[in-house]
Amino acid sequence: MRAAVLRHGKVAVATIADPVPGPGQVLVRSLACAVCASDLHYMDHPEAGADDDSGWSTYDQDVGIVMGHEYCAEIVDYGPGSERPVPIGTRVSSRPVMFALGGMKIIGQNPETPGGFGELMLLDETLLKIVPSDLPSEVVCVSDAVAVGWSVAKRAQVRSKDVPLVIGCGAIALSAIATLKRLGVGPIVAADFVASRRATALAMGADVVIDPRETSPYQAWSDVTRDTHEATKNMMAAAGSSACVVFECVGVPGVLESIIQGCDRGTRIMSLGGAPEGDHISTLTAKRKGLNIQFGGGPLPQHWDEAFEAVCSGALDVTPMLGQTVGLDQVPEALNAARDANSPARIVVVP
After folding, report:
1. Domain architecture of the chain: domains with CATH
2. pLDDT digits (tens, 9 = 90+) for 89-104
């Protein structure tokens, strides 16, 4: 098959051996696969894979790896001894993990679990989800990204008196915004340096967007809540709590620290960005302010299923997040384009 192969930190299109499904595995044809910031983090920081003692993700720079974990695919065949639960030719997706290898492996982040930036890939038959509509594959594949924001928005358990502040307006942030809106939470304040990202945030459900170069996100949040939430803010501040729930969705060193320094006492922080090179935070300041910081992790299975259904049914419109569609030969350029903050939230590869 043809695939965009990562080796020694570079991606090049090559012809490689077709993956062969084992017991419990499904051979599928990749129909569409979105470029994610995690792909960039993975290829740029091999030390993160080398230090991963979970075994979920490995990166040997001398071994070719096919990335891509946000996919829609078509079933081609099953491995020996499989249950074959879904007919061949059916469009499917799944959580981007494989359990049929004796332990969990992330698809697109291991040599033995090639991702969607190739013509063929392997899935776990126990995780298959049938696409329940005729929505284009280029839209369906974004459901995995949506699931991350969907899950964190639900796990945040935002109360009616809370006002969320979203820092960064990439795909995960946009998904969190859309989910918060569906949950009836608001007003939603979002901050990003890039005008196009702020416009997309409004399209996905944000009520107020600000440019941090012009206005402090925390001052903007305070201004938004001054009238409708002032009594609640005062009461909660007296109790050592806050109506502010911050969603950190940037993944650049220093951002989480800036939130700790800038936010109100008692703020809850949902940190999704996770700078791959690590970060430093002022734990004493966080302690004095009584902050509650929860780090992301992947979506819960039930939340992944809910997000998949919402995207596939059209109940959650993700088209504002989508940019150009490219072929396999353009994957290296697409990865570079995704580094640009002015790029759309998602570029989709159609192998």
Report:
1. 2-142+318-349 (3.90.180.10), 145-295 (3.40.50.720)
2. 999 999 999 986 678 9
